[in-house]
């Protein structure tokens, strides 16, 4: 158990280190890359005649790196600053990147976490029901609808939902995170506003993703229905409930584990496009904004934090997954099979 | 081999091969095995037919269509609805561009991206996955770690950061960039599959005969995982469509050529969402994108049936 846990933690730490190194390399080693771009931006903002010492100071303030130091020193400074939670300062917003992210992150986690959970629950349930009614018209119809929805990029469904529910029916807002006239806190108007604003983003994610989950769950359940151990379980006279949950459900869900890991990355990464479509001011929204404005400290900061969100999401999934599949918690090689 | 055949069992060294044409290459037989039978199975399968037809339409659109349909100009009427005139069958946008012409002329670049991305993702995944699964030990540990790290970095943000730094304009480069970590998930699946294959009898036999590792991988392992590879080739293509359109839609890839995402970007930033008289500007590219991705999924499901006799047999009953 501890061995397995250490391995997972080392993996997470390595990923974080890798991404920090990547952001450093992209910002500071690319010839003509972002760092030089920032210098040019600073020079033009401060007026043509900027004294080199002041330029170095400004560079350090924005990017945590002093360009006149040797590269290894720059790298160490950068990693140290990031580990201390200092991601530099945004150029267009003139605010520490960490502050911008701290405001935005809860929204992203809320809306994407909700999407992920609903997708998973709806997909698995639907898939199991479809497997049970295999070959019926219901099965055929939901398979077809599931495939069509799965062929639809979530942001395009988002656009169509916006057209129908926000512009035509005027039922839901066209964008934003919350009702600006409400006071954030545990009160009904605020919570209602938050849920209303999250409805379309969550809906476009869940509708397009759940179909794929349902189809894989259906396939897994059907192949398990033919297994020997299920016949044995029936012959032993176990209750249908027990067979459905512990024999079919568990064994059909386990192979979806890799999918779930990929889904966490996809969902968090997808926030970049989704939040832009719905002008939902989460991390993804700020990332796109920053890319368009060439605000590199903010781009790299948001990228770093989105990665961290996935790293912790996966770690959490791994730790809880052990409860579902005892073979993994035991630290055997069996987890490699999935 | 007939082990029950008494005469050959009695005189093992006098046995004559039952296959007469071992040294000559039997073309008709090869055709039968590798082309006709799979083709027949494919032709019987509704999903494969749908998928292949859809894909053919897009390939024709990107090759012949580009020659037949003139490039979009701003001569047309503004915001004409679709299916109103033969001249502008899919309608026009706010600048008077013919939507059909825009869709058609964006196809070649899209197909190049899809192909480049899918080839890159499946090739890297197959190479890394088979070597990791077959070699085991330290090689496996290192490769698995790389796969896991790649799997952990969220794809779209990584692509956006790279695209912002590199500013690629060649569709083939964009295609590769868009699958920069798509391969990791597939490589993991392939590795798991290879793990269960590597101790099979015939692989072990090859190993005992001293066959070099690369030949075992190429001749004994890879043919067995081809179904996965082909199915995932389609899925990688689908993910290229999703990210390419998304990034062009947000204006995060350099605007060098027409793209379905660019059309969507122009539509939504010109208020096409707000009225029923302009919504066709959004719906036309949306349908085009969904149809292509549906075709790829259908084809991958059909492939599954071709390679997976059990699925086929189930459908027969």
Automatic annotation (TrEMBL), chain A:
Task: Please report the name of this protein according to its UniProt entry.
Answer: Peptide/nickel transport system permease protein
PROSITE patterns with a match to the protein in the record? ABC_TM1
Q: What are the UniProt keywords, alphabetically?
A: Membrane, Transmembrane, Transmembrane helix, Transport
Q: Which GO terms describe its cellular component?
A: plasma membrane
What family is this protein classified in? Belongs to the binding-protein-dependent transport system permease family.
Q: Can you name the source organism?
A: Halopiger aswanensis
Instruction: Locate the transmembrane regions by residue number.
Output: 12-30, 107-133, 154-170, 190-215, 256-278, 298-317
InterPro entries in UniProt: MetI-like, MetI-like_sf
Phylogenetic lineage: Archaea, Methanobacteriati, Methanobacteriota, Stenosarchaea group, Halobacteria
Bilayer topology? Multi-pass membrane protein
Principal subcellular localisation of the protein? membrane
Taking every annotated instance into account, which residue ranges of this chain make up the domain ABC transmembrane type-1? Answer: 105-316
Where is it located?
Cell membrane; Membrane
> Which PANTHER family does the record match to this protein?
OLIGOPEPTIDE TRANSPORT SYSTEM PERMEASE PROTEIN
Q: Name one Pfam family in it.
A: BPD_transp_1
Q: Which GO terms describe its biological process?
A: transmembrane transport
Automatic annotation (TrEMBL), chain B:
What does the sequence similarity comment in the record state about its family?
Belongs to the binding-protein-dependent transport system permease family.
Q: Which GO terms describe its cellular component?
A: plasma membrane
Q: Which biological process annotations from GO are given for this protein?
A: transmembrane transport
Give the domain of life. Archaea
Record the organism. Halopiger aswanensis
Keyword field = Cell membrane, Membrane, Transmembrane, Transmembrane helix, Transport
Q: Name all ABC transmembrane type-1 domain ranges.
A: 111-300
Q: Where are the transmembrane segments?
A: 49-69, 110-133, 145-166, 172-190, 240-258, 278-299
Q: Does the keyword Cell membrane apply?
A: yes
Membrane topology field:
Multi-pass membrane protein
Put simply, this protein is called Peptide/nickel transport system permease protein
- In which compartments does the protein localize? Cell membrane
């Amino acid at each position: 158990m501890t061995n397995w846990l250490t391995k997972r933690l080392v993996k997470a730490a390595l990923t974080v280190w890798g991404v920090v190194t990547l952001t450093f390399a992209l910002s500071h080693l690319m010839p003509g890359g972002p760092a030089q771009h920032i210098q040019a931006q600073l020079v033009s903002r401060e007026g043509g005649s900027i004294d080199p010492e002041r330029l170095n100071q400004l560079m350090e303030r924005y990017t945590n790196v002093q360009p006149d130091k040797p590269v290894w020193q720059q790298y160490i400074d950068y990693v140290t600053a990031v580990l201390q939670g200092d991601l530099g300062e945004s150029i267009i917003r003139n605010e520490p990147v960490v502050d911008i992210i701290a405001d935005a992150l809860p929204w992203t986690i809320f809306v994407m976490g909700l999407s992920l959970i609903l997708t998973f629950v709806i997909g698995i349930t639907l898939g199991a029901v479809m497997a049970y009614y295999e070959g019926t018209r219901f099965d055929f119809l939901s398979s077809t609808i599931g495939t069509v929805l799965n062929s639809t990029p979530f942001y395009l469904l988002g656009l169509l939902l916006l057209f129908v529910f926000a512009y035509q029916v005027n039922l839901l807002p066209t964008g934003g995170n919350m009702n600006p006239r409400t006071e954030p806190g545990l009160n009904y108007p605020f919570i209602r506003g938050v849920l209303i604003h999250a409805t379309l983003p969550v809906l476009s994610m869940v509708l397009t993703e759940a179909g794929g989950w349902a189809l894989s769950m259906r396939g897994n359940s059907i192949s398990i229905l033919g297994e020997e151990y299920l016949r044995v379980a029936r012959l032993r006279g176990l209750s249908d409930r027990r067979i459905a949950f512990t024999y079919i459900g568990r064994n059909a869900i386990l192979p979806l584990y890799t999918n779930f890991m990929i889904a966490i990355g996809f969902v968090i990464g997808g926030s970049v496009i989704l939040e832009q479509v719905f002008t939902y001011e989460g991390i993804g929204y700020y990332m796109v904004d920053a890319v368009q404005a060439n605000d590199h400290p903010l781009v790299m900061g948001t990228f770093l934090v989105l990665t961290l969100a996935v790293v912790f999401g996966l770690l959490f999934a791994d730790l809880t997954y052990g409860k579902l599949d005892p073979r993994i918690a035991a630290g055997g090689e069996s987890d490699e099979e999935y | 081999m007939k082990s029950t055949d008494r005469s050959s069992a009695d005189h093992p060294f006098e046995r004559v091969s039952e296959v007469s044409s071992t040294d000559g290459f039997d073309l008709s037989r090869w055709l039968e095995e590798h082309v006709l039978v799979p083709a027949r199975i494919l032709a019987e399968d509704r999903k494969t037919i749908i998928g292949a037809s859809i894909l053919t339409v897009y390939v024709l659109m990107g090759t012949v269509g580009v020659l037949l349909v003139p490039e979009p100009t701003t001569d047309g009427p503004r915001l004409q609805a679709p299916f109103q005139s033969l001249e502008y069958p899919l309608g026009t946008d706010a600048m008077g561009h013919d939507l059909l012409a825009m869709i058609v002329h964006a196809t070649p670049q899209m197909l190049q991206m899809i192909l480049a991305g899918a080839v890159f993702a499946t090739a890297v995944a197959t190479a890394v996955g088979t070597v990791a699964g077959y070699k085991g030990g330290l090689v496996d540990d290192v490769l698995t770690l790389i796969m896991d790290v790649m799997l952990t970095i969220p794809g779209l943000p990584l692509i956006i950061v790279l695209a912002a730094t590199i500013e690629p304009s060649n569709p083939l480069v964009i295609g590769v960039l868009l699958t920069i970590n798509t391969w990791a998930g597939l490589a993991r699946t392939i590795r798991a599959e290879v793990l269960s294959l590597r101790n099979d009898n015939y692989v072990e036999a090859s190993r005992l005969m001293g066959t070099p590792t690369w030949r075992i991988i190429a001749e004994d392992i890879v043919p067995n995982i081809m179904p996965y590879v082909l199915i995932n080739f389609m899925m990688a293509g689908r993910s290229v469509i999703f990210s390419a359109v998304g990034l062009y839609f947000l204006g995060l890839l350099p605007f060098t050529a027409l793209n379905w995402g660019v059309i969507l970007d122009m539509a939504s930033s010109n208020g096409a969402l707000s009225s029923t008289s302009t919504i066709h500007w959004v719906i036309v590219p949306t349908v085009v994108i969904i149809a292509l991705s549906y075709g790829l999924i259908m084809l991958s499901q059909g492939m599954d049936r071709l390679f997976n006799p059990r699925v086929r047999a189930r459908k027969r009953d």
